[in-house]
Amino acid sequence: MGHVRRQCDDPLDDFERREVEVEGVEKRVYVSGDGPAVVIMPEMPGISPDVARFARWVGAAGFSVYLPSLFGVDGAYPRTEAAGEVVRRACVSAEFRAFAGGGTSPVAAWLRGLARAAHAERGGPGVGAVGLCFTGNFALSMALEPAVVAPVVNHPSLPLDDPAGLELSEDDAVAVAERVRRDGLRVLAYRFEGDRWCTGQRFAAYRALLGDAFDGRTLPAGAANADPPPFFREVVGCAHSVVTAHLVDEAGHPTLRARDEIIAFLKERLAGPSAGPPPAPEG
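^ that's the sequence the OP posted. Answer follows.
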């Protein structure tokens, strides 16, 4: 039944569609749920049915989900030819730094603004940020926003041409490490063993930057869904997307445990007063 479901596009009609402006730049954001806010960023090639499924799981766990549209066709099933064109466009876009030496992607600043707005609207102790694949490291870049207190870095693939790169400028890397140390943050991360897009070298680089605050977890490649959508089978070509395209929705499965661990991490970090937005500043 799950395989049949993945063959179809997702209308996303259970999400509220908003046009959100941050510093003069407007993007569509899909919003659902109640409780503390969690920004979930899509993986390539966009807000696929599997990304939307993960967002719904997070929402059902007691969170308000903010799912920004950053590339691709919202709700589209990941087919190889169309998805490949999305990747090519993103790699040359001024919003993203897909290759080594580019520093932090400019879109991270927009995402920090979205987190600020979500926190102002939903309240609570802070905001969760979950990055996936192409957006994996954005969850860490977003930690430069004080409202972000629960970053989850899933199989980060940027920069595409440097297995040990972190897609951060030197200044941002120093600032992120300082924020993590100062505020006692923990960064949860996942990858599959043998993932050529998110290697063990990359996780080692995160640990070198963040020390014990980096909680990197590696799943066996054999645990990945053997029948992902065509783009993941033909272009990605390896076990990669832990909680989306390569997740196996069976009780006790390692990928489903990873999903549950992420939700438990969000609950732990975002537990606290959430009766409404924070009070307006005096004056």
